Amino acid sequence: MTARDDIAPRVVTAYDWGSLGDVLDVGGGDGTLLIALLNEYPSLRGRVFDQPDLAEAARKRIEAAGLADRAGAVAGDLSADLPPGAEGYLLAEVLHDRDDDDTRDLLTRCAEAVGEDGAVFVIETVTRGRDLTALTALAEGAGLMVADVHDAGEVAVLELTRP
């Protein structure tokens, strides 16, 4: 069981993901979280963005789940530009083991990709990882501000938008 398997049920109920048209699960691994969201919100579309081997695993799991008509996977590098145009960029259990510079850089790339009207969602288990206060300071340094914090028990969903 991965961390995403454990948090997916909490994340699904933490926010009205159906209000977003399209999400990009950045560092989305094998697609566990995206599949859970798509199963709960039939109008939602999404893609996993991760290293080539993980993107391929996600694509196979998405197809096996019967969701290929609303989802896909894109191979790429988290240190490069992210595919633009999604209304929501998800960073689930991606930032807790990164240093401040790497975190700020990834948040900056998300801010650039999401544009003016979308949101970046940082999803972290509260009992591990970095202090949320420190994370919000890094988000501000990346050109984002905290729009809301959605509580899901041990999981926090920070909704970040451009000012």
UniProtKB/TrEMBL annotation:
Please give the InterPro entries that the UniProt record associates with this protein.
COMT-like, COMT_C, SAM-dependent_MTases_sf
Which residue numbers delimit the O-methyltransferase C-terminal domain? Answer: 9-131
Keywords in UniProt for this one? Answer: Methyltransferase, S-adenosyl-L-methionine, Transferase
Q: Which domain of life is it from?
A: Bacteria
Q: Where are the transmembrane segments?
A: none
Name under which the protein is recorded? O-methyltransferase C-terminal domain-containing protein
Pfam families the UniProt entry points to: Methyltransf_2 (PF00891)
